[in-house]
Amino acid sequence: ALATLMPIVAGVGGNAGSQTMAVTVRALATNQITGSNARRTILREIRVALLNGCTVALVLGLGVGLVFHNVALGGVIAAAMMTNIVTAGLAGAAVPLVFDRMNLDPAVASSIFVTMITDSMGFFAFLGLATAAGLTG
Predict the structure, then answer these.
(1) Residue 59 belongs to some domain of the structure
(2) Residue 123 pLDDT
(3) Are 99 and 47 in contact (CB under 8 A)?
(4) What is residue 85's predicted lDDT score, i.e. its pLDDT?
(5) Tens digits of per-residue pLDDT, 41-53?
């Protein structure tokens, strides 16, 4: 069951990070983000990620719990999804801002780093929580 669900955690986290990154890169390109409002932008994206994470975690956790007849597995994937979507929101907003501050083109350089962060966090959270819940073996 774990191998079946791992790509879902990574895929949804990657999509969330890419969406946040696209919004941030566009805002940088149109000069809507400045040094004075960058922190507010990151916090706004984290709030959106929390809302999205709660929604996706609830739906996915219930679905997995029902399909696999395993409440613990549903809880694990819900917690991992929440963790990964919030991480994706943070990374998707922060990585382009860091590259912009370093005078590098955030549209070119950001995507590989956001993907690396969301995939790593997604797998770490899902497998770590599954191990802690005793589902690995």
Answers:
(1) yes
(2) 96
(3) no
(4) 98
(5) 999 999 999 999 9
What angle, 0 to 180 degrees and rounded to 10, lies between the N-to-C axes of helices 2-29 and 106-132?
150
Question: How wide is the angle at C-alpha 64 spanned by C-alphas 61 and 70, nearest 5°?
Answer: 100
114 has a pLDDT exceeding 90? yes
Q: Most distant CA pair in the chain: distance in Å?
A: 52
CA distance 129 to 137: 13
Q: Is there a contact between 97 and 42 (Cβ–Cβ < 8 Å)?
A: yes
- The H or E element containing residue 51 is helix 38-67
- Three-class secondary structure of residue 6 per DSSP: helix
Total domains present in the chain: 1
Radius of gyration of the chain (CA): 16
Residue 137 belongs to a domain: no
For residue 30, the model assigns a pLDDT of: 95
User: Rounded mean pLDDT of 54-62?
Assistant: 98
**CATH number of the domain to which 12 belongs:** 1.10.357.20
Domain around 114: 2-132
